[in-house]
Amino acid sequence: MTLNTSSDTTGGPVEQAGSGEDRVRERDAAGVLVSPGAPGGSGAAPADRGRTTIADAVVEKIAGMAAREVPGVYALGGGLARTLGAVRDRVPGGRPNMARGVKVEVGERQAALDLDIVVEYGVPIPEVAGEVRENVIAAVERMTGLEVVEVNIAVNDVHLPDDDEESASARVE
């Protein structure tokens, strides 16, 4: 936003805030900026004085963290994404990618999410998916104020207890 200063008919400064539409603001007797027609010079509420944008990556991280909190979720992401992520996580200084397996579309007031998850063997998949959906919606709406219109969940794999033993013995060889 740019502020341009000019003089009004009385010689006092008038500031114009330009961003698409110009709004003229005048100063009252005490020198405080007053929006025309605003009672007491208060103008819009502070929360309404500007725009907040939330990046897709922010919503992805929130959703990823919320999904991982649900019991029965082993991991997020498809096979290749999990493999590459596991390698990246082992690199010194590497951090786990909380957004892996999460895709979002964020609008001005709404968001839609797609999650790829791996569940533990033996857990009821519809129940886990329902809990993931509820937890993700609650977390995203609470933290961002966006309305979550849909959360699509794709279960890509089931983690078997034997998988841990095989991967541990493969690393020892």
Strand content: 25-35%
Radius of gyration: 26 Å
Strand order of the largest sheet: 1-2-3-4
Number of helices: 4
Polypeptide structure, described:
- With about 170 residues, the protein is an alpha+beta fold.
- It has 2 domains: about 1-50, no CATH class; about 55-170, Cation efflux protein, cytoplasmic domain (Alpha-Beta Plaits), CATH 3.30.70.1350.
- Helix content is about 35%, strand content about 30%.
- It contains 4 helices and 8 strands.
- It has helices at about 55-70, 80-90, 125-145, 160-170, and strands at about 1-5, 15-20, 20-25, 35, 75, 100-105, 110-120, 145-160.
- It has a 4-stranded antiparallel β-sheet with strand order 1-2-3-4, with no helix packed on it.
- α1 (about 55-70) crosses α3.
- It starts with a strand and ends with a helix.
- Pfam families: Asp23.
- InterPro entries: Asp23 (IPR005531).
- Belongs to the asp23 family.
- This is Asp23/Gls24 family envelope stress response protein.
- It comes from Streptomyces alkaliterrae.
In short:
The chain folds into 2 domains: 2-48, no CATH class; 56-172, Alpha-Beta Plaits. Helices cover 33% and strands 32% of the residues. It is built from 4 helices and 8 strands, in the order ββββαβαββαβα.
How is this fold's topology laid out?
Blueprint: E1 2-7, E2 13-19, E3 21-27, E4 33-34, H1 56-68, E5 73-76, H2 79-90, E6 102-106, E7 110-120, H3 125-144, E8 147-159, H4 161-172
Parallel strand pairs: 7-8
Antiparallel strand pairs: 1-2, 2-3, 3-4, 5-7, 6-7
Helix pairs in contact: 1-3
